[in-house]
Amino acid sequence: MFDFDGTVALVRAGWMPLMLDMMMETLAPLSRDHVKTRAEAEDYVARFTGKDTVHQMTAFADHVRALGGHPLSPEKYKADFIASLEHERSERLRAVRSGECPASDLLVPGVLELLQTLRSRNIRVYLASGTAHDDIVSESQLLGIADLFDGIYGSAPGRKTKLELLQWLVSTGLSPVEILTFGDGQVEIEDTKSIGGIAVGVATDEESGCLEVDPKKRAWLIAAGADYIIPNYLDEEVISLVTGDV
C-alpha cells in the first residue's frame, strides 16, 4: 500500500509550511512564544498527516481555543487551506498538461520504476490517501500511474480508510507480514503496525530534490513504528525488499 502525497507524488510539495504559516496567522496574536506555538502546531500537523485534513484543523481549532481564542469550524479552516494550496497545485498540473513539465518531475524519484516492477511481478498494489478521492484519481491518471494500482482509495464517503483497507487485505487471507506500506505520514505507519504489517517511512526532503532524508520526518516516522526509512526509491534494495529478491 502506498500513500500519495509526499510518498508517490509531489503535486502538493510544500503543503506543510503553507499550512503552518496559515495557522500562525491566527495563533501568533494569541501567543507570546511564537517558536513554541509553531512547534506545537507542527506536532499535531505531523501527527495527523495521512488523514483527512479536517483532523489537523480540528487540532488547530483546539489549539486556538486553548490559547483563549475563538476558533472557526475545522471545516472552514480546511476549506481556507485547500483554497490557498490550490493555486500551487493547479499550476503544477497545468504545466504537466501543457508539456512544460514532465510528469516525472512530480513523482518521488524511483517510484515509477518500482510500481512498474511490482506490476510486472503481479504483486497487488493499492494507493490510499487522506486527500479527496476524485483529485487522487485524476492526478494519478495525469501522472501516468493510475493503471499501476489495483485500487485507489482517496477520502470520500464510502471509500475505505487506510486502516480499513489494511484490515480488508488481511481478511482476504494475506498474512500481515505479507503487507508492506510506504508512507510519509505517521497515520499509515501506525495503521500498518497495528495489523502486524511492515512499514517503510518515506522521509524525503523535498527541498533537496527528494535525494536526502528529512531529519524531522525521520524522527516522526520512527516514533510511529517505521521498520525502514528511505528518502526515495532509487536504491535497488528497495525493490529487493518488496519482491523478496534479497
Could you characterize the architecture of this molecule?
The protein is 50% helix and 10% strand. It is mainly α and 246 residues long. It has two domains: 15-98; 103-243, Rossmann fold, CATH 3.40.50.1000. A three-stranded parallel sheet has the order 3-4-5, covered by helices on one side. Strands 1-2 form a two-stranded parallel ribbon. Strand 1 (126-132), helix 6 and strand 2 (151-155) form a beta-alpha-beta unit. The longest helix is centred in the middle third of the chain and has 25 residues, at 74-98.
User: Which fold name corresponds to the CATH topology of the largest domain?
Assistant: Rossmann fold
Write the element-wise H/E pattern from the N-terminal end onward.
HHHHHEHEHEHEHEH
Strand content: 5-15%
CATH superfamily of the largest domain: HAD superfamily/HAD-like
Gyration radius, in Å: 18 Å
What is the correct CATH architecture of the largest domain? 3-Layer(aba) Sandwich
CATH C-level class of the largest domain? Alpha Beta
Q: Whole-number average pLDDT?
A: 94
Number of strands: 5
The number of domains is: 2
Specify the structural class. mainly alpha
